[in-house]
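User: Some background: our group keeps a shared notebook of sequences we're curious about, and every so often someone picks one and asks for a predicted structure to add to the entry. Today it's my turn. The entry only has the sequence so far, pasted here. Could you supply the structure so I can complete it?
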Amino acid sequence: MSTWLYVASSITLLLSLATVLATPFLLAHSRSPYDHGSGCWWCHPRLPLRRH
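Assistant: Of course. Here's the predicted structure to add to the notebook entry:
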């Protein structure tokens, strides 16, 4: 197996594992009944302003 294939596979595996582990927490957060306020990064993401 080439080095690049090993690196790409490792990165893909780590991203997949992080996604699988984070999904239940993000779903639980977004379905909670109380208001998180404007400081919640998940409910109110801070997007950069677009330049015209």
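Suggested note for the entry: The two ends are 47 Å apart (CA to CA). The chain has a mean pLDDT of 83.
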